[in-house]
Design a protein that fits this description.
By secondary structure, this protein is α+β, with helices and mostly antiparallel strands. The protein has helices spanning about 1-20, 25-35, 40-50, 90-95, and strands at about 60-65, 70-75, 80-90, 105-115, 120-130, 135-140, 145-155, 165-175, 180-185, 200-205, 205-215, 220-230, 235-240, 245-250, 250. The protein starts with a helix and ends with a strand.
Length: about 250
């Protein structure tokens, strides 16, 4: 009897430790699988559980809009991310630009949340159209110095912007906790004729961002060399457009 009880207690402790070792993402899919018993959800759980055993830069790290869990970006330093929609009132300038906005109507913006060792860093990264499908951020690469991010936004074309998909590249500098918008493509990148992501590297204090291809009907060479400074500042040293296309994204308080 005591021996059987010992095995039960040992098994309970083992299961508890396994549960504690789960990420929020795997726990969410495991619980959904147990609750719904839907084959696709259960396959998703098995896929994520196996994928999370891989090194950081071999795992799929996708921050889908408003999912109920954090996604692990860096296992060693416990860096996680989430993309959420946040409502705010339209500014007077936006009301002038967009017609038929009701007085109490709100605008939804995409907020990137990066959490490292208990500290949360929040950034407004994009306006969210009323159709929220297919809005997500993918982590392309990460190391101890930076995180390279790729944001896809499904846009509802209007008279101001006829493109239906926007692609934005960011780098999160981990030393200064600063997010830099590297470039913003509309419509024809990278899915239509351009297959590769722009190259991002860091040598010493300098970041190098490069891309070349067909854009807006012509051949373009896009490049920046810059360093990130304290207090959300940046030194842009070399650029294809006088540093007009690269920007610090202010951190939300």
């Amino acid at each position: 009897m005591m021996k059987a009880l010992f095995y039960v207690v040992a098994l309970a402790i083992l299961c508890s430790n396994l549960a504690l070792g789960e990420t929020e993402e795997t726990r969410y899919y495991r619980q959904e699988c147990e609750k719904i018993q839907e084959p696709q959800i259960c396959r998703g759980y098995e896929f994520i559980r196996e994928t999370e055993k891989k090194p950081d830069n071999e795992r799929s790290r996708v921050l889908a809009l408003d999912v109920p869990y954090l996604v692990v970006i860096d296992k060693k330093d416990n860096l996680t991310g989430r993309l959420v929609s946040v409502r705010r009132k339209y500014t007077p300038e936006e009301k002038k630009k967009y017609i038929n906005i009701a007085e109490k109507e709100y605008k939804e913006t995409g907020e990137l949340q990066l959490s490292e060792n208990g500290e949360i860093y929040r950034f407004d990264v994009s306006g969210i159209p009323k159709d929220k499908n297919n809005n997500f951020i993918e982590v392309l690469f990460s190391n101890k110095n930076y995180v390279y991010l790729y944001f896809i936004t499904e846009n509802i074309p209007d008279k101001y912007d006829k493109s239906d998909t926007h692609y934005t590249y960011y780098v999160f500098d981990r030393k200064y906790k600063t997010l830099v918008e590297l470039f913003y493509f509309r419509g024809n990148f990278p899915r239509k004729g351009n297959s590769s992501h722009p190259l991002l590297a860091k040598i010493g204090n300098n970041y190098s961002f490069k891309w070349s291809g067909i854009l807006d009907g012509g051949k373009k060479n896009i490049y920046y060399t810059f360093s990130v400074l304290p207090n959300e500042k940046m030194d842009c040293k070399m650029a294809w457009d006088d540093c007009e296309g690269i920007n610090i994204v202010p951190r939300k308080q």
